[in-house]
Design brief:
The structure is a single chain. The strands form 6 sheets. The chain has a 3-stranded antiparallel beta sheet with strand order 3-4-5. It has a two-stranded antiparallel ribbon with strand order 1-2. Helices cover about 55% and strands about 5% of the residues. It has one domain: Glycosyltransferase (Alpha/alpha barrel). It is globular. The protein contains 13 helices and 13 strands. Helix 11 runs antiparallel to helix 12 (about 350-365). The protein is mainly alpha-helical.
Length: about 425
């Protein structure tokens, strides 16, 4: 056991030796690490949200927790936060059945149905006030995709929720899908008409990577539950779009913001979104059940993960980009999954080492002593003073990272076992 722990300690620090000189992790090491990720989820991340976010006065959730974890009772509440809570606890419940998780998923689903659904025009509101009245009622397509993703995850164990997911899908295809240029627009008016609807994400773009990605993830989940022919075609079109129009092969990064015909607004990129998109494309290809597409997206993911390794700094954290050297919580989780996925595909130890370096950074700099993770750090690794929860910070990214990491390491451990075991 001491030798095992020593080996893991080596892998969680920046290595000066070549990846080829370090042996592959043993089955015991892989399974121990998978247990560590699961414990982080069940003992540290989820309990924080379970304890601190439900607001008994409105049968919903608090909209903001400040940097000390204190709730702001009258804060605006976002669709993003409630959807991420529903997704995180639904995903955990599907993998680690728990009466407590089930209770919170039912609570979050009821909150979305009662307070965020637009009963007149369909779809969901971006935000509401603490009393449940719409604060921003336009159709932010990112929000529609995120709600669809959450409904789909909840439907894994609560089949009636599948109808809500299907309804959102039909609305997106009817109103937000650009049938000419491809992809999905950024924002529409409340009645789904085009016009001067605000963009709550302040991108100044007609289309964005972020919106395409969340729609892809939502469609991947929905297609796994509902093998509809038209959905499969639209899902495949998104896979092709992301690789062929949004990815800049010269820079090796995805563009962020575009006009209507996919001309980039600038050359900005985000390392976290690069990694998230890469591993999500592999998942999408597997849902398509197309061997050639799986192989192609896997090779693509290896290239993106290799670029991600170069974005790790000396602390093991992945920086947002060269101009923004902050290291946000969500980007670390996406990098961790991407690197482990690349190791699954290739067996190349540089990816496993990168994942362990990144996990070392997370444990040293992001894991909060009172639960969940800090927002992020500056370049030097100092925690930034930011809210513990707000309109855009919820539990999806780090919960998903822990679930994905647990699953991937368990699978690798099982493959490592001799046939007689």
């Amino acid at each position: 056991m001491k030798r095992l722990l020593l080996g893991l300690a080596i892998l969680t620090t920046p290595a000066l030796v070549s990846a080829q000189t370090i042996p592959a992790p043993s089955t015991e090491a892989l399974l121990q690490m998978s247990n560590e990720f699961q414990q982080e989820l069940t003992s540290h991340i989820l309990p924080f949200w379970q304890k601190n976010l439900p607001n008994p006065t409105n049968n919903g959730f608090y909209g903001t927790l400040d940097d000390k974890g204190t709730a702001t009772p009258n804060a605006i509440r976002s669709l993003t936060l409630t959807s991420e809570i529903l997704w995180a606890f639904s995903a955990a419940d599907a993998e680690i059945s728990s009466a407590d998780y089930k209770k919170l998923t039912d609570y979050a689903f009821a909150d979305l149905e009662k307070n965020f659904l637009d009963t007149k025009h369909g779809g969901v509101y971006w935000s509401i006030d603490s009393s449940g009245k719409p604060a921003q009622n336009h159709k932010q397509i990112y929000a529609q995709g995120l709600a669809l993703l959450a409904f789909g995850e909840y439907a894994r164990t609560h089949k009636p929720a599948l109808e809500q997911a299907k309804a959102l899908y039909q609305l997106l295809e009817k109103h937000a899908h650009d049938k000419t240029q491809g992809g999905y627009v950024q924002t529409l008016n409340q009645d789904w008409s085009q016009g001067k609807a605000p963009d709550s994400l302040n991108t100044g773009a007609e289309k964005t990577l972020h919106t395409q990605l969340v729609v892809l993830q939502a469609y991947s989940r929905l297609l796994a539950l509902w093998p509809d022919t038209e959905l499969k075609k639209n899902h495949r079109a998104l896979i092709d779009l992301l690789q062929n129009k949004l990815f800049d092969r010269k820079s090796g990064h995805f563009g962020l913001n575009f006009d209507g015909d996919w001309k980039p607004k600038n050359d900005a990129y985000n390392n976290g979104l690069d990694q998230e998109t890469a591993w999500s494309l592999v998942v999408a290809a597997k849902v398509q059940d197309d061997d050639e597409l799986i192989q192609q997206t896997e090779q693509f993911a290896l290239k993106v993960a290799t670029n991600g390794l170069m974005a790790l700094d000396g602390t093991g954290g992945i920086v947002n980009n060269p101009k923004d050297t902050n290291k946000d919580w969500w980007a670390q989780g996406e990098a961790l999954v991407s690197f482990l996925g690349a190791y699954q595909i290739s067996g190349d130890m540089q990816f496993f080492m990168g994942a362990m370096r990144n996990w070392g950074f997370i444990k040293a700099h992001l894991v909060h002593p009172q639960g969940d993770w800090y927002w992020g750090t500056d370049a030097a690794g100092k925690q930034r003073i930011e809210p513990r929860a707000n309109l855009i910070k919820g539990p999806l990214h780090n919960s998903r990272a822990m679930l994905e990491a647990t699953y991937r390491l368990q699978l690798l451990g099982a493959l490592n076992k001799p046939a007689h075991q």
